[in-house]
Design goal:
The complex is a heterodimer. By secondary structure, chain A is mostly beta strands. Chain A contains no helices and eleven strands. In chain A, the strands form two sheets. In chain A, strands 2, 4, 5, 9, 10 and 11 form a six-stranded mixed beta sheet that branches. A five-stranded antiparallel beta sheet of chain A has the order 1-3-8-7-6, with no helix packed on it. In chain A, strand 6 and strand 7 form a beta hairpin. The termini of chain A are far apart. Helix content of chain B is 0%, strand content 48%. Chain B starts with a strand and ends with a strand. The model of chain B has no long low-confidence stretch (mean pLDDT 93). Classes of the chains: A mainly beta, B mainly beta. Chains A and B meet through strand 4, strand 5, strand 9 and strand 10 of A and strand 5, strand 9 and strand 10 of B.
Amino acid sequence: QKEVEQDPGPLSVPEGAIVSLNCTYSNSAFQYFMWYRQYSRKGPELLMYTYSSGNKEDGRFTAQVDKSSKYISLFIRDSQPSDSATYLCAMSPFLYNQGGKLIFGQGTELSVKP
Amino acid sequence: GAGVSQSPRYKVAKRGQDVALRCDPISGHVSLFWYQQALGQGPEFLTYFQNEAQLDKSGLPSDRFFAERPEGSVSTLKIQRTQQEDSAVYLCASSSNTGGGEKLFFGSGTQLSVL
């Protein structure tokens, strides 16, 4: 079983829909939780960054972390065709002075139809 | 430059050839990571440098994989005697921090195809 599980999709929604993306994990040492967006033939781009449990909002994007359930979510409101991409969750334990090695989920491919 | 730069963008190798992939991190970034991304999968950690020191190479799949960052800036990932299973996108990322929870900035990757 992988440390981080993510439904690969693909997920197709109409423009304006609310999108919910999720990941579960097994390692209770994870402290930092991130969402990356990856367009085709590009590298991952950091979208949301959260430390420990709680919610974080940035424009149309909301990230939620529930450490008790080992479950994280990304919500996209008023989805746009330009949101069509692969969304990767990523997690990291706190490793002082050893770098921030990230463990990624498989990625969910999202398509927003006009 | 403004971002992480990787070259070449695409590399085709015959099985058994050696390849070298280059990464130019964001200027001043202390931490540098290499990841391998297979088709339809998330990136998987290969190795980590803090300046010129390779602090973690636990993700390198075999002794055919070797990475270096001799002056603490540009890094090279070398794969000897390439095999078909080495075909993947190799991503480089850099960060200005050295502690946990770093925000990584990725390059566009080198797509390696081994025939």
